[in-house]
Amino acid sequence: MKIQVENLGAIKNAKINLDKPLTLFCGQNNTGKTYLAYIIYALTKVKVSKSPLKFNVSHLIENGFIELDLNIKELFEFKNRSIDQIKLNLNTIFGISEDVASQIFSDFSITFDVDIDNFSTKVNSIGFDEILDINEQRLKISKQTGSLRLKVELVEGVDYKELLNSEFMGIIISSIIANKVVYYPISNAVIFSVERNSIFTFSKELSLNRNLLIDQMQKLSKGDKINPFDMLMSSTNRYPIAISDGLSVSNDLQNIQKKNSEFYTFATEIEEELLNGTLIVTNKGEMQFSSNRNKGKKLPIHMSASIVKTLSSLVF
Hints:
10 strands
């Protein structure tokens, strides 16, 4: 995936090839590295919008699988629409007001450095066979190299009641799969911002729910009318999206620790080889550290060594 960015803070013009196995941004302070990282991160976030894939949940549940035909032209247009979403949501991406975003990024532009023919060649060359975990519903998706047909299958032993009961689940699944195809191989990303130590140390004080409540109370104090549905669906722009996502993780550690990802052994290796101890989550959702040198004591994360605070988010 190649993108071209113009007028992003200190960056006047840049082309980035994200298909490479490693891309390293080096430079002095205030040269745009973080800005660019935030934009790339935002590109990987699933945009729940009109997907070009015709996905029928009832057909999937009834037959156990569904096959989707990939239309290159519609996928290409979907990809370009996601670029428009980046431009429209710069305030959310950087955690600023719409007015400030329009001033700072008035000349900003981002485009995909690929035409429809090259895009078609890439989609044809994609091949994968993997399990998607969507809102605790596991689906198997597969695509053969050289084919424009994609297969979605139910996984044995999974309760799909939630899939049946959600009218939006088909839209969500369709958008996730479309994003996976158009952005392949970068279908998801995790960002460890420089603020990660503060996030895990002060997650309760920085609670997103609390900040959202404060924002809504400020609107009420001004006499603004608030729709309860809008209040439920809205999110605070107090932090950039990367930091907000980090806060969401820190506030959901009790649920996260119940699952082991494919990188579980790597997390364990970091604890054993670098931290010389174990990261623990209490019943109240607070992170603690138990050192191998004194297993009887469990330190609050803010009292642990700097390397423990720095790598705790990576471990989880």
